[in-house]
Amino acid sequence: MNTDAYFLNEALKEAEKSLTEGGLPIGAVLVKGGEIISRGHNRLIQNDSVVLHAEMDAIENAGRLDYEDYIKCTLYTTLSPCPMCAGAVILYNIPKVVIGENTTLMGAENLLENNDVEVAVLNDVRCREMFLKFRDDRPEIWQEELRKVGNTTEVR
To answer: What gap in Å lies between CA 86 and CA 95, rounded to an integer?
Structure first.
């Protein structure tokens, strides 16, 4: 069994959940010892939040873990993490992030790598297609989110 593929598929289920709720289709799971200990999906729209990205949601849903727990975790996410989410990974010493894809939007992967976090990009076409379909179907929501963070980078 390809564990990266399995856990990314679980993150995709979270992205689909967000999409069903009317949100951005980004999902994440936090894995420790080969088991999912937490799930999360983007809730910016649903909760009128400024911080509930999928990665932040998954980290929050794990509860208050000890250092010894965090250093045994891997975060799986469907899209390259932004600087805020990368900062949370660094803060909690999560040693590895597996990214579904980074071609639609490049996050802060350099920040992760410069802080000794292992980064693996799977280039999963399902992640890309889901995000591009959302952007095409709901361009007003995507543009609004870009304006909120002052980012005018277009999805490729």
So the answer is: 11
Query: How remote is the C-alpha of 38 from its chain's centroid?
Result: 13
For residue 60, the tally of other CB atoms under 10 A from its CB is 15
Q: Is 96 exposed, middle or buried (0-12, 13-18, 19+ CB in 10 A)?
A: middle
Q: How many CA atoms lie within 13 Å of 39's alpha carbon, on the beta-carbon side?
A: 14
Q: What is the pLDDT of residues 67-106, one digit of tens each?
A: 999 999 999 999 999 999 999 999 999 999 999 999 988 8
Give the predicted TM-score (pTM) of the model. Answer: 0.93
N-term to C-term CA, the chain: 32
Q: What's the rounded Cα separation, in Å, for the pair 23 and 138?
A: 10
Residue (of 145, 156, 153) closest to 52 by Cα position: 145
In angstroms, rounded to a whole number, what is the distance separating the alpha carbons of residues 83 and 96? 15
List residues with catalytic annotation: 55
* Per-residue model confidence as pLDDT tens digits over 25-68: 999 999 999 999 999 999 999 999 989 999 999 999 999 999 99
